[in-house]
Design a protein that fits this description.
By secondary structure, the chain is of the alpha/beta class. The chain has helices at 35-45, 65-72, 89-92, 169-180, 199-205; strands spanning 3-9, 14-20, 25-29, 48-53, 76-79, 110-112, 117-120, 123-129, 138-142, 147-151, 154-155, 158-159, 188-191. The chain has five helices and 13 strands. The strands form three sheets. The chain has a six-stranded mixed sheet with strand order 1-2-3-4-5-6, with helices on one face. Strand 7 (117-120) and strand 8 form a beta hairpin. The longest helix has 12 residues, at 169-180.
Length: 212
């Protein structure tokens, strides 16, 4: 059975998720900032990271990737449509805000494409391309474990921004309806910011989805 650890990191409190198996191996999702805090936790718990997986490449989700990659010699996974975003502040958004430096990260090690099953060590997950918030936004679904990492596509009672580069409200709503709301009603959806939710909760109460 997998365990889930959540950290709120950086100036906009981005959710970083660490998924741990019974052998203390782990995957790190969206380490947005504060690499020292992440590394200290990994050492304290004796967790052994295998990879860093990004739901998308906005600045608040990528800030710690190079420090972690150097410390643990692990690969970074990112959708191919955002392969240039890690090194370009005008694309990842860091160039717009004074709260962070201009992020110019090294290139991703593994570029994702299509929708398929992804295997990393003993971890098995389904990959869904869920564009709209950004062109390469993806969702990582651990269906057998009953949860999914959805990034900034969907929040409790809200949806992701679509006013950033290559954002699209039409694509976002399509991604939510076709990929997220079709998951089992009680699937736990872990977003990039704020508390978790479920498809059932969002179908019933999300004002952005009613009548759309």
């Amino acid at each position: 059975m997998l365990k889930i650890n959540q950290l709120e990191l950086g100036p906009v409190q981005t959710n970083c998720y660490i998924i741990i198996n019974d052998s203390n191996e782990c995957l790190i999702f969206d380490p947005g900032e504060e690499s020292g805090k992440i590394i200290a936790l990994l050492k304290k718990k004796d967790w052994k990271p295998l990879a860093i997986l990004l739901t998308h490449a906005h600045f608040d989700h990528i800030g710690a990737i190079d420090d972690l990659r150097e410390a643990y010699e692990i690969p970074v996974y990112l959708h191919e449509l955002e392969k240039d975003w890690l090194s370009r502040p005008n694309l990842n958004g860091s160039g717009k805000y004074d709260m962070v430096p201009d992020y110019r990260m090294n290139a991703a090690d593994v570029l994702l494409s299509g929708e398929k099953q992804l295997q990393i060590g003993s971890f098995t997950m389904d990959l869904f391309h869920t564009p709209g918030h950004s062109p390469g936004s993806v969702t990582y679904s651990f269906k057998d474990e009953g949860f999914a990492i959805v990034g900034d596509t969907l929040f409790r009672g809200s949806i992701g921004r679509t006013d950033l580069i290559d954002g699209s409200e039409k694509k976002l709503l399509q991604s939510i309806r076709e990929s997220l709301l079709t998951m089992p009603n009680h699937m736990v959806l872990f977003p990039g910011h704020g508390p978790d939710t479920t498809p059932e909760q969002e179908k019933n109460s999300n004002p952005f989805l009613k009548g759309r």
